[in-house]
Write a structure and sequence with these properties.
The protein is mainly alpha-helical and about 1150 residues long. The chain is built from 63 helices and two strands.
């Protein structure tokens, strides 16, 4: 061994100096094909891992066959084998799914391996190989440190290393560009009595070949000397050894040495394959020596027709060798076609990908494919792609059957488009779906549901029926009735003169889910006398989806005749307005809006957004009167405030027609009416593009008069930038103007002060004005602005260029800074990151969104106010309050005046209450109210309830004072405070005080709450749940006294229902026998029709196994068309089945506990 290493040391002595890396190589994986360039240093550092997981098991088996490890007990071997299989499975699954290994997963596998007590060589090999290019989230140096940690820890635990481990170490160095001393590395191997093999020498050659231009010639000489050492050691160099040398020479443009080496290979028994020669061609081309490519092409045996498709051949060759071909390898091919809008070229590349077996991912479609599809010609190209996916045997075993590939393609196609794009291209998409139908293309039902949800969120439900045509219905569960089964059952019940309401509704709902409008309407006409409100609501929604305005309106009129007090949900009202307006039934649409106001339909932010989409769709269709009248109705009725977004369709109407005078006039009219300027930027851009100088002057005069000269200049500046008129923009933003702008915007909310100062500094740099630049530094400190790193570096550069001292530490530049754009707008990197963040928020991907935030934070990129607000909202919705607070703290320190909005503060209160941070929640409520925000009813209610359960009456009174006068705005009932103050008093054992207070409120002459609305159900339920028996006893006495002496029956009713609902049937029965309850039932017989009453009575009958009474109750309520809740139906169904009788409706599938919890949560939410 010593003799072998002596010649190695001989040629390595001069190799201990530091080196610079060569450029990265494109492909990686095997010996001689390093993943990345490598730097070596004169140190005895240890390695990192890489390589393919698919080879890990082979190397571990080889190591075991060499028997380097001592004999272990059978159980230890079995444990190690199981441990290795588990680790390999986890890591391999990660690589297959994402192409990478998360650091947390590798750490977990490493910890488990260490805890096993006796880790074997195979586990060590697997862990080491995972520390290279498969660990992208860590810096290169951190990967190496991780590998060193693994090496040292496992060695301490008794792992014996062999040559495969040292080779893995070398591979990790190559992948991580780690500097090391080959001399020391070989010395360590000698000390451990490990003999280098061919792979060791090949990787040492790769290390030398990857060294930089400093002493590059000597490095190549050392690499060549390794060939001599290998031969002296009896190891013949293989093709990979020579290929490493050839690639290194090619990168240096050394065609002479390439030829000489190729001659050596030809004279030996070795043979270089075409794929090897193609890799040499690639190295020449990348290094800028294309003139040598023909000389290598002459040695390729392929016919000349294959040569133009070099990349494709190379990727095929690499795939044959077992290397993974990633989707992004094809992006350079796609981007060329994308720039030229060459749709057919893109289709050809996608076909080539499928031939190689590479499936394009979502990023490929979104960034490189879909941007080209903006015409009917493009639709045909999309059809080609779809057909390619659909008929390829790899993706569909028996075409033309349904395939997930087609389904996911369609989903990603729609998901990649914005809502406005989908609306604008609605007809093209409809044409596309119908052409797919003609091709007999099918998609799985589960993916259809995802597409349906997307279309619904984009406010184009009319397209759902077109996609529905493509669905391959899943095989019907024999246990579930089909629509034909239900129809047969319906006819049978009708013939037997039995109630058919439930079955009819169930059948209609099923037909609606199947988008079978024609059949559903026929069914309604046939059984119109048995229709219920729920059935009509579903049919109205179905007709709206099918763009059937006539039937939708008729159904709404029948719905009103059936029950004039019935209220549709908000979404159905909105869809009615949309379809009626679209089909010219403008007055009917306005009547629907009036009904929404009259019936106090809940209007959320999403509803206002839907109003915008209705108006915008009409504007895009050029329907002037529809836009104007619907907008007027929405604003006049107070359904929404006339915001810039809501009013923008008034301007869009004319921009789409290219009627610029009318567009400007509409914008000005909006300002006169509502003090807003919708789409002023777009109007200015159009005017500039058309050269309408008179109209530009008119617009600027108006903005200057109404909003000031600086706002006018600001608007004009960005309009010039948008249209590419940089010289004009520069004329506007001269130093004095920009300085004035910076001064005026000092207290402007959501103004990026650092970005403005950065723009000023750029002007000062051009003018060489270091004194003003130094003054900026002082002003920023005065405003307490935290400057970004780029601002500090620019300021430092100005001061140094003028021989001035820099008064701060200059941040190190660890990446190449992008060249300044001619504007002060965010850089492309910043803009792209913010766009990714907003997209992740829109899709509710909180983990992705937070990771983007962390990435931006590391790069000192600051987003705008809206981005952080949306991210905080999302994190709070997902109950990630810790992360939300991180974002909030960062935003507050980087954006002056940043605050959470109403929704975010409400979510924060709910989260703080859930985590029992009640003082923090109260502080958040005060902060929100100080900002004139209106917290949500749920947030305030949850906080009050939590304080009550703690017995904190003082905090409840504080909250009552804080929200005084805002109860109607919040939607807060006085009973929330009455119930919870009483509960807090009871929790503090002040039962008599609570009882006396309630009695006084109900019996005094000056009653603040009408006794019939004095609901104490929440208080009674909490007392019963808390098993507060002394309080319950006194409450029972109180409610009877109120009923008997004062004829106040609401409390006794509430207590009775809560006793039944909580299973205290005997107590409820005793109360029922009381004179108060008997009087109540005599006075108010309709009480039994109330949901709480009939639900509790059914529970009582079930507990008593009283089938006759239960039947009588059900039949009585059915005759009155009472809508049952699921808990009632579940109890009755189980009672009938236990008695051996049939159930006249479909039994709700979930458990009692599920429906009880659902009903309880519903009650608490609407308290």
């Amino acid at each position: 061994m010593a003799a072998l290493l002596r010649p190695a040391r001989w040629f390595l002595r001069a190799a201990a100096a530091p080196y610079l890396p060569l450029s990265l190589r494109l492909f990686a994986g095997g010996p001689g094909r390093p993943h990345a360039a490598l730097c070596l240093r004169a140190a005895g550092a240890w390695p990192v891992a890489g390589g393919l997981l698919s080879q890990a098991r082979l190397h571990s088996i080889a190591a075991e066959k060499k028997n380097y490890l001592q004999e272990e007990p059978t159980s230890s071997h079995r444990r190690n084998a199981n441990q290795f299989d588990w680790a390999l499975m986890r890591l391999d699954n990660s690589v297959r799914r994402t192409g990478r290994i998360p650091k947390t997963l590798l750490q977990k596998v490493f910890d488990n391996t260490c805890h096993s007590g006796s880790p074997g060589g195979n586990q060590a090999l697997l862990l080491l190989r995972s520390c290279g290019s498969l660990l992208p989230e860590l810096k290169l140096s951190e990967r190496t440190e991780f590998a060193h940690k693994i090496w040292d820890e496992l060695q301490k635990l008794g792992t014996v290393y062999d040559v495969s481990h040292y080779n893995a170490l070398l591979k990790v160095y190559l992948q991580n560009e780690h500097k090391f001393s080959p001399t020391d590395f070989l010395a360590k191997m000698e000390k451990a009595n490990i003999q280098p093999n061919r792979v060791t020498y090949q990787r040492l050659i790769a290390a030398y070949c990857n060294m930089g231009d400093i002493e590059g010639a000597r490095d190549m000489e050392n690499a060549e000397n390794i060939l001599t050492v290998m031969k002296e050691a009896g190891i013949e160099p293989g093709p990979d050894t020579y290929l490493a040398l050839l690639n290194a020479y090619a990168e240096k443009g050394d065609i002479d040495h390439v030829k000489q080496t190729l001659e050596k290979v030809e004279k030996s028994d070795l043979y270089l394959m075409d794929r090897d020669l193609l890799q040499i061609i690639l190295s020449f081309s990348k290094a800028g020596y294309p003139q040598y490519v023909p000389e290598i092409l002459e040695k390729i045996t392929y016919e000349r027709r294959y040569i133009p498709d070099l990349a494709k051949v190379l990727m095929k060759a690499l795939k044959e060798e077992g290397f993974p071909i990633r989707t992004h390898y094809f992006w350079p091919l796609l981007v060329g076609h994308q720039k030229e809008k060459n749709v057919q070229g893109i289709v050809e590349v996608l076909k080539g990908m499928h031939e190689i077996g590479v499936t394009p991912d979502q990023e490929t479609y979104i960034n490189y494919v879909f941007p080209c599809f903006d015409s009917i010609k493009s639709v045909r190209a999309v059809l080609q792609i779809t057909e390619l996916l659909y008929k390829d045997g790899r993706y569909c075993q028996e075409p033309p059957g349904p395939t997930e590939a087609v389904g996911y393609f369609l989903y990603n196609l729609i998901d990649s488009m914005s809502d406005s794009e989908v609306q604008a291209k609605e007809e093209r998409l409809r044409q596309y779906f119908h052409q797919l139908k003609e091709m007999n293309v099918k998609i799985p039902e589960n993916i259809y549901r995802g597409i349906r949800n997307l279309l619904d969120s984009y406010h184009v439900p009319e397209l759902i029926k077109d996609v529905n045509m493509l669905v391959e219905r899943e095989k019907t569960d024999s246990r579930k009735p089909s629509s034909s089964d239900l129809e047969s059952k319906l006819e049978k019940l009708k013939a037997e003169n039995q109630p058919i309401g439930d079955i009819l509704k169930q059948l209609i709902l099923m037909l609606c889910s199947e988008e079978n409008m024609e059949k559903a309407l026929e069914l309604k006409a046939k059984y119109e006398s048995d229709m219920v409100v729920g059935g009509y609501a579903a049919l109205i929604n179905l007709c709206c989806r099918h763009d059937n305005a006539e039937d939708a309106l008729n159904l709404k009129q029948e719905f009103d005749r059936l029950d004039s007090s019935a209220v549709l949900d908000t979404g159905k009202y909105v869809r009615l307005v949309k379809v009626l307006g679209k089909h010219g039934k403008l007055q009917d649409a306005i009547n629907i809006l009036k009904e929404m106001k009259e019936k106090d339909v809940l209007i959320k932010d999403a509803t206002v957004l839907s109003f915008f989409h209705i108006l915008n769709g009409a504007a895009l269709r050029g329907e002037t009167e529809t836009v104007k009248q619907l907008h007027e109705a929405i604003v006049t009725l107070g359904l929404a405030k006339p915001s810039t977004t809501l009013s923008s369709p008034l301007v869009t109407l004319y921009l789409e027609k290219d009627d610029l005078p009318a567009a400007l006039e509409s914008t000005i009219d909006c300002y006169k009416k509502y003090k807003i300027l919708p789409r002023i930027h777009d109007v200015l851009c159009k005017l500039i593009e058309k050269g309408e100088t008179e109209l530009i002057q008119k617009a600027m005069d108006f903005v200057s008069q109404e909003q000031g000269e600086m706002t006018m200049l600001y608007d004009l500046f960005f309009a010039f930038l948008q249209t590419g008129n940089y010289k004009e923009a520069k004329k506007i933003i001269e130093v004095e103007t920009l300085e004035k702008l910076v001064e005026l915007t000092q207290k402007l909310f959501e103004c990026d002060r650092d970005q403005l100062y950065y723009s000023l500094l750029k002007l000062y740099k051009v003018n060489g004005d270091w004194q003003r630049a130094d003054a900026v530094w002082n002003k920023m400190q005065e405003e307490n602005i935290i400057p970004r790193e780029k601002t500090l570096r620019l300021l430092a550069e100005i001061l140094r260029n003028n021989n001035q001292e820099v008064p701060f530490d200059v941040p190190e530049l660890w990446y190449e800074e992008e060249k300044d754009s001619p504007t002060s707008l965010p850089s492309p990197v910043e803009a792209n990151l913010q766009k990714e963040l907003l997209n992740a928020c829109r899709r509710r991907r909180n983990k992705d969104a937070f990771n983007i935030f962390l990435t931006a934070k590391k790069q000192n990129i600051v987003f705008d106010n809206e981005a952080y607000a949306r991210l905080i909202n999302l994190l709070l919705m997902k109950d990630n309050s810790t992360q939300a607070m991180q974002v909030k703290d960062f935003a507050e320190t980087h954006i002056k005046g940043f605050t959470l909005n109403d929704a975010a503060n409400s979510l924060l209160i709910i989260t703080q209450v859930r985590r029992d941070y009640l003082k923090d929640a109260l502080t958040t409520l005060k902060t929100a109210l100080d900002l004139d925000q209106i917290p949500s009813r749920l947030a305030v209610t949850r906080l009050i309830q939590a304080c009550a359960l703690k017995g904190d009456t003082e905090s409840i009174h504080d909250i009552q004072k804080l929200v005084n006068g805002l109860e109607d705005s919040i939607g807060l009932s006085r009973m929330v405070f009455i119930n919870n103050i009483a509960l807090a008093q009871i929790k503090n054992n002040n039962i008599d005080v609570a009882i006396e207070s309630i009695e006084n409120m109900l019996t005094s002459e000056n009653q603040t709450v009408d006794p019939q609305y004095f609901g104490l159900a929440y208080l009674f339920r909490k007392v019963i749940e808390g098993q507060l028996e002394p309080a319950l006893e006194k409450i029972s006495i109180m409610v009877e006294r109120l009923a008997n002496q004062f004829a106040v029956y609401k409390p006794v009713t509430d207590l009775f229902l809560q006793l039944v609902d909580s299973g205290k049937v005997d107590d409820a029965r005793a109360l029922l026998q009381a004179p108060a309850m008997k009087s109540l039932l005599e006075l108010i017989p309709e009480l039994i029709d109330k949901e709480e009453a009939y639900t509790c009575l059914m529970k009582s009958y079930v507990l008593d196994n009283d089938v006759a009474s239960a039947k009588a109750l059900y039949e009585s309520l059915t005759a009155k068309n009472v809508k049952f809740n699921d808990l009632f139906l579940k109890r009755y169904a189980v009672l009938l089945k236990n008695a051996g009788e049939s159930v006249p409706f479909t039994e709700p599938p979930e458990s009692f506990e599920f429906y009880a919890k659902q009903l309880k949560e519903s009650k608490e939410t609407h308290l």
